[in-house]
Each structure stands twice: as C-alpha cells, then as structure tokens.
Amino acid sequence: MTLSEKIAALESRIGINRPPGQLRKLMEQHIPETLKIPAIQVAGTNGKGSTVTWMSLLADRPVIGTFTSPHLFSHFERMTINHQPIPADKWEEIYDRWLPLFEEQGFTMFEADLWMAMVWFAENRVDLALMEVGMGGGRDATTALVYLATGITNIGRDHMQYLGSTLEEIAKAKAGIFKPGIPALTAEQDPALFEILSREATQAGTLLTKVLAISLPEGFPKYQEANLGLAAGLLAAANIPMKPLEQAEKNFFWPGRMQV
Predict the structure, then answer these.
(1) Strand, helix or coil at 10?
(2) Which fold has domain 3-251?
(3) Which of 86, 94, 78, 88 is nearest to 4 (CA)?
(4) Which of 13, 53, 134, 161 is deepest in the core (most CB within 10 A)?
C-alpha cells in the first residue's frame, strides 16, 4: 500500500471507541512507557485546540507534544512535537509496526491515532504531552492516559447523538475526565453548568476550580481570554513552569480557527 492508501485505510476505521479502561490495559501491556509521560487533558465544546496551543507556548519544557483533532490539511497535524507535525516516514513506520494490533483489536481511527502519537512521544522523550479530547470525556480514548491535571473549556450542544440531548447530560459526559486527586479546572461561566461539573468532580474524588480569563491585547477575540486563562491554570495546577505571557501572545496561531 502507498502512504496515501494507508492514511485512507486508517481514516476508514470509523466507530465507537472502547471504554478507556480497556485501552489502558492494552497500553500497559504493549507500551507501558507511554503512561509515564507527564500529560494534561483538555475537554469541552469549544476552545480545546486553542487551549492546547496556549499551553504549548506557555509551558517551559524543552520537548512538548500535542495531540489534537480534527486536522486541517494533513493527518500528520494531529500529533506534533514542538509545533512540528510527525514526519510522513515516521508516521508510516509506526503505523506499519502496530497495524497487526490495530486490526486484531479492531481499533478505531482515533484510538490508533492516540496510540501512534504516544509511541512517537515516548521515542522522543517528550517532557509534556498536551492531549485534546476527541469527543465527550468519560468514554474518550484520551481518558486512558495518566494526567497531572484535567480541564474543561465550556459546555455546549455538540455530538448530541452520543453525549446527550441536554446541556446537563453533555456536561456529565465531559466531566468523565475527572479523576480522584487530579486537579480539575474549567472556564465554564454558566453557574448552573458549573454546579453540574462541580458536583461530578466531587463524586469523582476531586475539587473543581473555575479559572479567570486573562486579558489579551487588541486583535485577539474575546473568547481567547478564557482559553488562555484555562491554559495558564492547568499548567499551574500541574506545577509546570511558564514562559512570559508576552512571548506566547506573539507566537499564538491556530490556523482555520482563529484566522480571518
């Protein structure tokens, strides 16, 4: 198969992800080193990718990996190290190596993407992995990993056929990322939705913190202030040192999202 055929084959693996606990067991069996990578998880309806981007610019760590979706132009964009997408030849090598397992276990595209990203991160000794939830939270493949902190940007009506028909149901689905003793943060400002998230956090064994927006210079849309606030809050909660905010502001770019 050519590289483009392999990508097409992967993208045809549409389906529902297995429970994260099952994926976690497979990772413990085959790639346990990936579960030792310091990581932060971001869920929510809007702003997940922006929050990950802000963290990647703010975090004072030499090697930073990001896992985001969907891609804009190339499938390789879904996994980056220090803002560079995975090289095509490396993507193909990892894909070929693990394809037998993907086929044996019936991996979805998203599960395979996550697996490949974590393998690549481990090989490159990533100091921090910033992981964007694909959909929901509790049943998302990214929830299989071990985290220093978890965050929810906001709650809106998305993927309702899977997450629920009401904002309360969607909030509960996204709150599934909360874990006992792991710092949980949110930029959600609606009091009723915050109360739902807070209650779910308490039941999960953690305390939910509401972060404040951080003012940005003229030219940035207002909503990015909440994303920046959550990014800074997550890094602080994870005890990750931060670079000067001015440097992040200068370099921030999220193509196809915050772009005219």
Answers:
(1) helix
(2) UDP-N-acetylmuramoyl-L-alanine:D-glutamate ligase (3.40.1190)
(3) 88
(4) 53
